[in-house]
Amino acid sequence: MMKSLLRAFSTALLGGAMLLAGTVGAVAADGKIGLKFLGHATFEVTSPGGTTILLDPFLSKNPKTPEEYKDIGQYQPDAILVTHSHFDHVADAEAIAKASGAPIIGAYEHAGAMDVPKDQQKGGNVGGKYQVGDVTVHYVPAMHSSDPGGRPVGFVLEFNDGRTLYDTGDTWIFGDMALIEEIHSPDIVLLQAGGGPYNQDPEIARMAIDKYFDPEVVVPMHYGTFGVLASDADVEAALADHPAVRIMQPGDSAEF
Ligand SMILES: [Zn+2]
User: Fold this and answer.
1) Pfam families this protein is in (predicted)?
2) Distance in angstroms (rounded) separating the CA atoms of residues 94 and 58
């Protein structure tokens, strides 16, 4: 009941969602969830209460990151979340953690191996959670690899207005996505659609949304960065006609 009321409320807000330009950390508050796409699988999320969370930071050497966002000195997140240990998800995690003092939240083995002070290593595992400001960060499964680094994970961010954002991480579609929907009912999905040798094709990403989820917003990610990945055209062909899908370009911001 509460969830459906919140959903109606968020739908109303979505009607007024807008794209903004601005500096990192500037998208904020006033009861809205801010989302800045920084290229590939890197996003900065700002909670309704102003907590900032950096997802899978790959910035300084990311060919898709706009020039003005490559300087890692500008990032002051409250936490850095890493889904697995591959370079295109962690390249700048340690440097940003050292510069900002932010904790790194990841799989137990992965976070524990990070070259940052012990009190910034926040390891966990599927089913576990951390509180970061007004955001509860839940670990969920992902079907991929992470070596070294324990296991790959996805994350569900639960905001204090009841809304949730699911970062799939790198993954193929899997049946337990039904449980992620049952338990967390994601309102916003950051959707792996990278295809190529490593991840699900955009068509399978579409199937995951159609089969398992009922979100208000779906942002495809992790495509077009390297030649082996799905192209912008591939992603548009498979996903753009879905009413919840929003194609974001690196550097774009949105509020929900
Ligand atoms: Zn990746």
Assistant:
1) Lactamase_B_3 (PF13483)
2) 11
- Work out the pLDDT band at 56, boundaries 50, 70, 90: very high
Q: How far is the CA of 90 from the centre of ligand 1 (A)?
A: 10
User: Which band of pLDDT confidence, cut at 50, 70 and 90, is reported for residue 148?
Assistant: confident
Answer whether 252's CB lies under 8 Å from 37's CB. yes
Any idea where the domains of the chain sit in the sequence?
2-7+25-240
Yes or no: domain 2-7+25-240 corresponds to CATH 3.60.15.10: yes
Question: Structure tokens of 37?
Answer: 């796409």
What spacing in Å lies between the alpha carbon of 192 and ligand 1's midpoint? Answer: 9
**118 CA distance to ligand 1 middle (Å):** 26
Cα 134 to Cα 49: distance, rounded to the nearest angstrom = 6
| 83 C-alpha to ligand 1 centroid (Å) | 9
Neighbours of ion ligand 1 (CB under 5 A): 88, 170
What is the CA(181)–ligand 1 centre distance, in A? 23
Ligand 1 centroid from CA 16, angstroms = 32
What the block records as the tokens of 122 is 């926040």
Classify residue 175 by burial, with Cβ atoms within 10 Å: 0-12, 13-18, 19+: exposed
Could you tell me the strand order of the sheet in which 188-192 lies? Answer: 129-132, 135-141, 153-158, 164-167, 188-192, 217-221
Number of H helices, E strands in the chain: 7, 14
